[in-house]
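Hi D.,

Good news: the full-assembly prediction came through. Inputs first.
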Amino acid sequence: MTVGSPTYSAAPGSKGNPGLRFVCLANKGTRFPELANFPTSKCQGGIMTVHHFPR
Amino acid sequence: MKWLSLTLALAGPSEAALRFGCSTVSIQRLDPLVEPGKLPSAHLHQIVGGNGFNATMEGDIAEKASCTTCTFSENFSNYWTAVMFFKHTNGSYKRVPIMQNTALPNGINGGMTIYYTQQDFNSNGNQKITAFKPVSTHTHQVYQREKS
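Then the structure:
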């Protein structure tokens, strides 16, 4: 099973790739919210990607 | 009717979920699911799991792998994701490493956390959960259908 597409390019207001979500970590314990698109501002604790199967 | 009461007890509310960490097993331009047999694949992947990972994977992985970087040694599955690069202002690229999950015990190096849940940690949902089928031509056909 696969999630996401390497050729995907987010448009403003896009719902993102089905099944693929990003979490902007304030610290290593942050788990929400799950964002549809890659964070555009700095994430202090890093960025977590979540792959939901089946998408 | 002792057996009936036992059955009812088992059918009561339960929240079943499985979570485990997997260290990096390899970083390669290979993708046996999206581009089977292609050497190299279109982009780089970080791979975790069993040592049976290959450019082409057919049949039952349990018969081909003998060890795994995942913490359940019975599971020889592989999981992989595209690798992200950071572009420096001078134009050079650096691979962004994967951090270990702080919620898991130390020692999972550059790994992923794998979850098997019926719906989430707090609900079983209304779907039956089944094991992933072995990677086979069926899997490739499903993928090709999705692509076309």
